[in-house]
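To: structure subgroup
Subject: Chain for Friday's discussion

All,

I'm putting the inputs and outputs inline so they're searchable in the archive.
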Amino acid sequence: MASQSIVDGGGVDIISKLPDQVLCRILAFLSTKESVSTSILSTRWRYLFAYVSNLDLDDKFLTPLEYPNRNTAIRKFLSFVDRLLLFHTSTTIKKLSLKIGVDCSHVYSWIAVAMLVVFDLDILGTVLNVLSDVCLPNLKTLRLKYVKFLNDDSVQRLFSSCPMLEEVLHILNCYLKNLSGLNISITSLKSLCIGYSIETRCSPLRLMINVPNVVYFKYVDFIAEDVSVAYMHSLVEADFNILLYDADIYEFGFAIADEELQVQVPAVNQFLQAIGHVKLLRLFMDYPGLVNCLSSFSLPLLSHKQFLPFVNLAYLETFDKCWLTPGTELFEFLESVLNLQTLQIHHLGQGFDANWSPPGKVPSCLLFYLKEIEIRGFKRDEYLFGMITYLLKNSRVLENLTIYVRWINQDLEEYKLRLTVEILTLPRNSEKCQVLIL
């Protein structure tokens, strides 16, 4: 490359005298569009952008002011990417992020960049047909978003083309309706996220997961009809959020959803069995548009008799709406959490029955291990107040009870003061327990 510096108005361009490695490091902090634009500064900068290892390519580079016609803008963008990748050698690109809002066949040639380590693919509407000759031998991180999979074989070719996939696999907001099943078997993988399938009922009929060495697992989606999940013996953290909302709920009411819930019970238990090694678990359930309905839209009866105990679980976070009656299902689930130290409950004001019915058996974690309890979104509710009373009475080693109050139509500070006085009068089994109202 040229080493000429620029003299402008008597001043010396000191930056241009820096080594290529340093200049490329500077360019790495700019967006790809800004990085490429530096090529017009001088001959010294003309091709430096081609040595930047991270490319973030978004069709929003071309603004409507520059190209009012969308088709023209897309053609310009595709041409820009083609030319940009020509300047880069296969050894320089380590991370490639593609975001395109139209179907794009160019992606098949783009993903052939041999030395990719991180690949983010966000292409709305593109049907991904992975060819048999595609090989990404160094890829460690793969994130797929808004991608349409052509068929089962194409998905398997993609996964098999990444023999070193290790750090992250994200499959989010993707179109899965063309698949009869989704089979993820990657023993080297450390982090797996699956969620938010596009369109109603487009989750695959079969879901097979074999990722025994994952440290982090996230599942936010409908439950497939046929689930097979291998035990994750290295798991540390998990987010498990079951989605139960689809068009049938609005069209036919609760009956069909209740039947589906019963079908999902074995699949839910499969997941819980597989994540039994986890140390930190967020366990939720969503049914958008029905936040004020309870009915049977709760987690199935997660009896501790249906799966092995969570012997490592120290932190559990959940919504009270996940449990039809938190005093029964929640505490029955806690019987399987032998060493729980922190429990966080998000109260969503679901209008539980005013009569608190304590469980017949006190979970052992309350007696020996539970030290921290957080209640978020507290609003004066006899049912929730009864639960708090029960927790204070039976938690022998509890150190902190923190209650985050939801805003109400009265003086908040006065309300928190009255609530503090009321809770402090409740009997506590632990002398060390401190109560904090926020």
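Points worth raising on Friday:
The chain has eleven helices and 21 strands.
Confidence is low (pLDDT under 50) at residues 1-7, 245-257, 288-298.

D.
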